[in-house]
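Encode chain A's predicted structure.
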Amino acid sequence: MNGLTEAKKLYTERGARMLHERFPEYEGRIAVGLVGRGSQCFGYDDIISRDHDFSNGFCLFLTDEDDAKIGVALSRAYRELVGADETERSALGSSGTGVMRISDFYRQTIGLACAPSAWQDWLYTPSTAFAEAVNGEVFRDDLGQFSRIRNEIANGIPEDVRRKKLAARLIFMAQSGQYNYSRCLGHNEPGAAILALSEFVKNAAECVFLLNRRHAPYYKWLLRAMRELPRLGSLADALEFLLTAENSDDGAKLKAEVIEDICAQIVAELRAQKLSCGSWDYLEPHAFDVQSHIENREIRSLHIMEG
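Encoded structure for chain A:
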């Protein structure tokens, strides 16, 4: 049983009763779930994950006004419920479980107390931060304030920003995978070739997330989460092959073919979504084509690699 399942079980079997009995006037105003940093919030934790930044519990989200009234009392009641079983916390570890203000959660996660309104915030906030803001599960939110912000972050990326991010991913894929990988091998620079492959894989995976209108998570969960996507999620196996297969002469030749196959499937999806009209095999002209259709002139004028 992973941490997300355990958290829901704990809330259902004990937490809901505690809220009903001790905070009856507020139980319909408290959002409950498990969301945020760490593998347990993505549902990806296992026994190894529990050596750090792990706590067996759930999150209780309050408005600023409700926190001023019951925040301290609710925190005490929560600690009585779950005890102190949190494992060692790393410097950049989980923001934890327990009672927190809605505004504080989003401010700590994406740097804002609400969903972004400016295109600059959508473009320059890391996708990993957005992924952490919308992962996990909300068990109850009668008031709806927490879930409203969550849904705006999950679904609200402006189309011009999505296109700009796609253009940047495509140009990096073209340069690292279609161009530099084989050239690095030709220069007898195998380490540089592996770095080129890594750049290609990371940008290809993030490209697939953008094509699915989803936020890409932290790199160590990138391929696992990609496999759950409806569009091109199956390419995760090919990307993993590029990272793990032998780099012998025959292996390098096969990897170059796999890169081109991945790019061809990306191109097909770009055309299916009417993001690019070209039929080029090389991704660079697709990147410029995608960017050329951005309506916002300020975004359209940014460097092709920016985003």
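The first helix runs from residue 3 to 22.
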